[in-house]
Design goal:
This protein has 14 helices and 2 strands, in the order ααααββαααααααααα. The chain is mainly alpha-helical. Strand 1 (89-90) and strand 2 form a beta hairpin. Helix 4 runs antiparallel to helix 9.
Amino acid sequence: MNDLLNKIEKALDEYTSIPHSHYMDKVFEAMRYSLLDAGKRVRPMLTLLFAEAAGGSIENAMPFALAVEMIHTYSLIHDDLPLMDDDDMRRGKPSNHIVYGEDIALLAGDGLLTLAFEACLCEKAISAVGYEKAAKAALVLSKYAGVRGMVGGQCIDVMSAGKITRENELFEMVSGKTVALLKAASIMGVIAAGGNEKQVKAAEDYAQGLGMAFQIRDDILDITGDPTTLGKNVGIDEKNDRFNYVSLYGLAGAQILVEQFTDEAIKALDAFENSTLELKNYALKLINREK
């Protein structure tokens, strides 16, 4: 896993090298500030692990792993802006807009969003997997990152402060805001490897279980976590009047749900003939994470 993380970090660094242009340098610097040497890399890790599980290679899947991490990072930059969550700390350091200002932070997010699709459809990606698979992966990413996925979930989050009080509404929001991009990451790995539809569905089911477990654990850590360990502020949901799984089930009940959703994720891996031990262990590792 450490080897994979190192490969992801190196590839992200290489792909976002700063161009020699006075005006563009600043936005690339801001993009790299939030993107590099930070975060758990859950999404790109899933892309690479599912590519292996479906019989493909890490190298061929790497452009798609980079793409999904760029999308995730852009969403965090925008999420921290004053007109959204108004948060001044992310990944253990000041949020992007605190360092670069709101204007450059907005553009840095936009830059990462568009660069993600360039990564999916770049010459290296097409050379590795072919036009059809590259296009299919880009379509999956656009679907799950957009209004039918992550953006839609964030829209529910923004517009429903103090209004969500039922579990079905909460599930819909989490399925968009958190789960959707994990689905994109997992499915793109299978696509890059040339996996079958059964494996695509299994990757989607794994991501659904993992994503729900991940978000509910996040809800718990928003109350019990240490900001220094987490690399971000806590108490954000209470500050923004948000209903979550701890509100609904309490700390103990929410942790039981984390374990149940993790079990569902692991069961989905039965569809793969190649080893899925790393994916299983990854899901188990997230159950009691502290950051």
